[in-house]
Write a structure and sequence with these properties.
Length: 77
C-alpha cells in the first residue's frame, strides 16, 4: 500500500486543517493513507429508466409465476 509520511510545522498544517492550539507551534507528523478507491462522481441529472442497461438477460416466464408453497412458508407468507 502506498502512503505519504512527512514532518511539518503545525503552523504550516493549520492552513489545511484546524489543529488544536497545543499542536500549532510544534512539529507534527502527517501520514496519508488511502481509505477508499477513487471513483468518478456520479453524473447528476441522469436517471436510468427501465431497460436502459444493454445486454441484460431476459427474465424467464417462470419468474412471474407464484412461489411454491414451501418457499412461501419459509418467508412466513
Amino acid at each position: 500500500m502506498d502512503y505519504v509520511r512527512k514532518t511539518v510545522s503545525g503552523a504550516e498544517l493549520n492552513n489545511f486543517i484546524n489543529l488544536p492550539l497545543s499542536l500549532r507551534n510544534r512539529r507534527v507528523e502527517i501520514i496519508v493513507l488511502p481509505v477508499e478507491t477513487a471513483m468518478p462522481e456520479k453524473q447528476k441529472g441522469k436517471v436510468c429508466r427501465i431497460g436502459c442497461y444493454p445486454n441484460l438477460p431476459e427474465l424467464p416466464g417462470s419468474f412471474f409465476e407464484p412461489l411454491p408453497e414451501e418457499d412461501l412458508k419459509a418467508w412466513g407468507l
